């Protein structure tokens, strides 16, 4: 653990990174240091006393990229230190999110408006692709999803593509849109997985990282929303955005899409 | 001019098409006839008395695909007949739109809530691409636009791409985003047109019709929004949508994007 | 049947179209009329005496877009009339092709060097995409195929994509290349059809016609070969090319790729 | 400099890397070590006596990723040591290549058949994209090139895109193909650079590395050849291929495309 003790200025948000010695944590530290208006005040590693370190460093926001087994404890510890929290670690359940919401409510009752943003994906291109696909889905007769990843990935389709398919399907159901037309009689194994009525295709190709393409079609027209994640550095603009937003957004927010201003 | 005189039912919208003998008009007639809940009650051609025909046919909505020199007169004539209007003809100015708004206000004062939707583009994929590009623009360091058309097109870049570039530029200015980085020192002629600070590239290729691609980039990630218009039939879902919406949307609405439900 | 009797000139190839009243036949007639150096001398329809009409018209090349049940008979009749033949009709077998080769050999023995080109696909973009994919296949660790069609197509994957997959697989086997890596453990239904060891994905989307994409990947790089067939008019440059080539290419040639000069 | 002295076996090619301490050199060393049938026997750095080190190490092939000012001297030194050479360094001229050809001829006269492969680009996807574009160019009415790079690139269009445009233009001239049709009357600045009659567009976008897209169009169809270089590691399959090929390819070969088997 390292901390600096410069006094906070109104223009600067003081940020602590939890899991600072992990891959995402190191990248986050670098991103915080490079971002205008953010100051890295603590690198918290496994074994550190989170509440004590954050309090000593005067951290206003804690960013958690640790481990599913540790993240909930870390969030409560950060709230105890009076810090807002941005969480990129996975493994959250309705129950664990509920306990965080309760904790936030207690702090609010004490007069301290803290915010927590939990996001499974901080990639702006991935999050926006999903949002736009859901917005567009009701206006097209057909929609299919293709996700493309490196060939070392063990599961298919990807969690992001599955999430997109469900969002698309929900939007179409809500608007009363019929299922995508499909006259296929033979060769179903080429037609991809059926995820909530939406066909999802998984490509595995050496050289790729993580990519998603949503195709929407009407008579005579097509809309394609494509996103490419080339590098884990791509999560950093989303993390920095969440840090800037969380200080003004009390309570629990789940999903980066709910932080974005798409007005 | 032909008209049918079936009595309107609550479940059906009675539609007249102005310019029914033109290319877009014929396509519109076919689309109205094919659409659930719409009934084509009049095909109005040049020389017909618009108000009289619409009144006789009991048209609730008039769709105008005529000519820039005729469209404003047609809209006022349709409002005189008590019909809502959907306009796909170009050539509108602030002044002509203002006169329609005034007319609508007078009818509202008389107790008749009529709506007019004027849209330069009814292609859902094109409209949504522009909307999504503007929504996403503030979240990416770089943005460029590529439009691709058949090689018989005389102007570059396309009106749609120019519109998108302005929308993207405005969104970035409003959010205080810096211009896209660009270290180009030589070869500027390859870097496309500068439209409001956004680089726009025009491709002309036999076989293509009308296509637009908006590329947005951050460190390690890319978002691409692509739309293809293969055929003028692609405007029809947007026209049908506007017909359904205009009956419940009093006053003047400009741009199909303002009719869409992107909540 | 119609025929014109202008004397052939050295600069012009006299062409008869068999199946001139079908969709492909009509398009072919228009393409022949529009092509430099080709002259349409006969439109042959069902019931016409092919040999007699071709002989009367002085046709040098017959183009057959008829029906699988008629095409072999037509080819023999055209050869009897001393015409070269370009065949776009499907349904050929090793046996029927063998009988045409035998017929060509007999005519050659008689001192008449005639050529026949049978091609299942005259789309240059589709044919070249398949050729390039096969050429590139041995140089990449991974390869997958995505085909995209309108949703009224009953079979999947498309014949073209299946053909491409086999060509790619054969090229890799010949070069001793290992199968594409794939760590998939769950969700195989999203991974497409296994065609000769190559994953093939079929997308069905309203607005599309016929499209194919071959993705090839190595560490740090990707090659994508994409072809779009928007319209049956796209077959015409290939048909015109085959007409020009067949007069100088005695014997039987199967596949447009074997007519192309890719030196 | 480090060298190993294991005796060469018939199944293994003994490789020395010149410029082993540079970025490309280090990547090459790793690739050689990882490749079946290749053995890294020397890492040669600036100041080392190239001939002596290669001779001592028993190197059969030298790979040069040094500097334009050093590369020609290195090649002659390697030939003096009896090694074949693969060169990825730029800066070669007709004159310097001529001197290498002369040197190779002298060694051949002495009974030693050595090979040198000089390639400005070892990226297989980039090289193949250029080859395929040139092969296809004569068969399409229209062709344009889009290159996309990171925004820190100072020159436009890229050398690779310029090379592709010239190859495409030469192929079309040789086949007597007319220039791509273009009815543009206004807005030429959006139409890209004119490189030998081919329009080339340069996109600069954060997140991208080096990408090229060649679009070819006929009535009703499109062929798109796209290549992505995500990482300098992408050069390694091409380097390894050249090492394997050079031992059986006496004389001077310029361009990786001339090493590929595209039969």
TrEMBL record, chains A, B, C, D:
<keyword id="KW-0457">Lysine biosynthesis</keyword>
<feature type="active site" description="Proton donor">
    <location>
        <position position="153"/>
    </location>
</feature>
<keyword id="KW-0963">Cytoplasm</keyword>
<feature type="binding site">
    <location>
        <begin position="19"/>
        <end position="24"/>
    </location>
    <ligand>
        <name>NAD(+)</name>
    </ligand>
</feature>
<dbReference type="Pfam" id="PF01113">
    <property type="entry name" value="DapB_N"/>
</dbReference>
<comment type="similarity">
    <text>Belongs to the DapB family.</text>
</comment>
<keyword id="KW-0560">Oxidoreductase</keyword>
<protein>
    <recommendedName>
        <fullName>4-hydroxy-tetrahydrodipicolinate reductase</fullName>
        <ecNumber>1.17.1.8</ecNumber>
    </recommendedName>
</protein>
<dbReference type="GO" id="GO:0009089">
    <property type="term" value="P:lysine biosynthetic process via diaminopimelate"/>
</dbReference>
<feature type="domain" description="Dihydrodipicolinate reductase C-terminal">
    <location>
        <begin position="130"/>
        <end position="260"/>
    </location>
</feature>
<keyword id="KW-0521">NADP</keyword>
<feature type="active site" description="Proton donor/acceptor">
    <location>
        <position position="149"/>
    </location>
</feature>
<dbReference type="GO" id="GO:0051287">
    <property type="term" value="F:NAD binding"/>
</dbReference>
<dbReference type="GO" id="GO:0008839">
    <property type="term" value="F:4-hydroxy-tetrahydrodipicolinate reductase"/>
</dbReference>
<comment type="pathway">
    <text>Amino-acid biosynthesis; L-lysine biosynthesis via DAP pathway; (S)-tetrahydrodipicolinate from L-aspartate: step 4/4.</text>
</comment>
<feature type="domain" description="Dihydrodipicolinate reductase N-terminal">
    <location>
        <begin position="13"/>
        <end position="122"/>
    </location>
</feature>
<feature type="binding site">
    <location>
        <position position="150"/>
    </location>
    <ligand>
        <name>(S)-2,3,4,5-tetrahydrodipicolinate</name>
    </ligand>
</feature>
<dbReference type="Pfam" id="PF05173">
    <property type="entry name" value="DapB_C"/>
</dbReference>
<keyword id="KW-0220">Diaminopimelate biosynthesis</keyword>
<dbReference type="InterPro" id="IPR022664">
    <property type="entry name" value="DapB_N_CS"/>
</dbReference>
<keyword id="KW-0028">Amino-acid biosynthesis</keyword>
<dbReference type="InterPro" id="IPR022663">
    <property type="entry name" value="DapB_C"/>
</dbReference>
<dbReference type="InterPro" id="IPR023940">
    <property type="entry name" value="DHDPR_bac"/>
</dbReference>
<dbReference type="GO" id="GO:0050661">
    <property type="term" value="F:NADP binding"/>
</dbReference>
<comment type="function">
    <text>Catalyzes the conversion of 4-hydroxy-tetrahydrodipicolinate (HTPA) to tetrahydrodipicolinate.</text>
</comment>
<dbReference type="InterPro" id="IPR000846">
    <property type="entry name" value="DapB_N"/>
</dbReference>
<feature type="binding site">
    <location>
        <begin position="119"/>
        <end position="122"/>
    </location>
    <ligand>
        <name>NAD(+)</name>
    </ligand>
</feature>
<feature type="binding site">
    <location>
        <begin position="159"/>
        <end position="160"/>
    </location>
    <ligand>
        <name>(S)-2,3,4,5-tetrahydrodipicolinate</name>
    </ligand>
</feature>
<feature type="binding site">
    <location>
        <position position="43"/>
    </location>
    <ligand>
        <name>NADP(+)</name>
    </ligand>
</feature>
<keyword id="KW-0520">NAD</keyword>
<comment type="subunit">
    <text>Homotetramer.</text>
</comment>
<dbReference type="InterPro" id="IPR036291">
    <property type="entry name" value="NAD(P)-bd_dom_sf"/>
</dbReference>
<dbReference type="GO" id="GO:0016726">
    <property type="term" value="F:oxidoreductase activity, acting on CH or CH2 groups, NAD or NADP as acceptor"/>
</dbReference>
<feature type="binding site">
    <location>
        <begin position="88"/>
        <end position="90"/>
    </location>
    <ligand>
        <name>NAD(+)</name>
    </ligand>
</feature>
<dbReference type="GO" id="GO:0005829">
    <property type="term" value="C:cytosol"/>
</dbReference>
<dbReference type="GO" id="GO:0019877">
    <property type="term" value="P:diaminopimelate biosynthetic process"/>
</dbReference>
């Amino acid at each position: 653990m390292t901390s600096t003790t410069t006094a906070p200025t109104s223009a600067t948000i003081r940020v602590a990174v939890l899991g600072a010695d992990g891959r995402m944590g190191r990248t986050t530290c670098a991103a915080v240091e490079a971002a205008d208006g953010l100051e890295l005040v603590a690198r918290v590693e496994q074994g550190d006393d989170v509440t004590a370190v954050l309090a000593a460093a005067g951290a206003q926001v804690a960013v958690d990229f640790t481990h599913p087994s540790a993240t909930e404890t870390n969030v409560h510890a950060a709230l105890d230190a009076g810090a807002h929290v941005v969480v990129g670690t996975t493994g959250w359940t309705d129950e664990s999110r509920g306990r965080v919401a309760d904790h936030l409510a207690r702090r609010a009752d004490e007069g301290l408006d803290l915010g927590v943003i939990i996001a499974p994906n901080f990639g702006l291109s991935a999050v926006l692709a999903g949002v736009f696909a859901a917005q567009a889905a009701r206006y097209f007769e057909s929609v299919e999803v293709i996700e493309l990843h490196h060939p070392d990935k063990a599961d298919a389709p990807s969690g992001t593509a599955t999430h997109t398919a469900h969002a698309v399907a929900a939007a179409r159901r809500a608007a009363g849109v019929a299922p995508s037309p499909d006259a296929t009689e033979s060769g179903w194994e080429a037609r991809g997985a059926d995820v909530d009525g939406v066909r999802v295709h998984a490509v595995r190709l050496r050289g790729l990282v993580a990519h998603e393409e949503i195709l929407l079609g009407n008579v005579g027209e097509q809309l394609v929303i494509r996103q490419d994640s080339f590098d884990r550095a791509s999560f950093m603009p989303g993390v920095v955005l969440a840090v800037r937003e969380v200080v003004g957004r009390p309570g629990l927010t789940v999903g980066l899409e709910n932080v974005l201003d798409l007005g």
